Amino acid sequence: MINLNTYEFCDGCPFFEAETEKLYADGLVFSTEILCRHSNICNSLYNRLKNHAKEEKCTFKDGVTIKPDGVNELDPCVYEVVETHKNVTVNVLKCKKCGHIELEWSKDEEML
């Protein structure tokens, strides 16, 4: 049996790296699990952010929406890095005003 063991937030992730784990019984492969190499880090971050995120995000004065390019909305939050992870660098950004959390991802050059 082959099982795909991923989280909803893995879908479309540019850093997904498949890894397999095989379970054996009587010398034969009984089950193969496919998961992401980074799933423990991502799941930990997801749970932490879910538990600490505030309901209300910052807004511009009078609820104004600003779209500098005419399409994408400008985020009113002012972020600071509160956590960094290595290999796949994940910066956890937190708004200084409302506490809203965003993630910023990049791959370390030496890991490519």
Task: Tell me about this structure.
The model has no long low-confidence stretch (mean pLDDT 82). The strands form two sheets. The chain has a three-stranded mixed sheet with strand order 1-3-2, with no helix packed on it. The chain has one helix at residues 39-52; strands spanning 2-4, 18-25, 28-36, 79-85, 88-95, 101-107. The protein has 112 residues and is mostly beta strands. The protein has one domain.
Summarize the structure.
The chain has one helix at 39-52, and strands spanning 2-4, 18-25, 28-36, 79-85, 88-95, 101-107. The chain is mostly beta strands. It has a three-stranded mixed sheet, with no helix packed on it. The chain has a three-stranded antiparallel sheet with strand order 4-5-6, with helices on one face.
Radius of gyration: 19 Å
Number of strand elements: 6
- Cα(first) to Cα(last) distance is 31 Å
Spatial strand sequence of the major β-sheet: 1-3-2
Strand content: 35-45%
Main sheet properties: 3 strands, mixed
- Which whole number gives the mean pLDDT? 82
* Derived structural class: mainly beta
pLDDT below 50 for ≥5 consecutive residues: which ranges?
none
Fraction of residues in H or I helices = 10-25%
SSE run: EEEHEEE
The rough form would be described as elongated
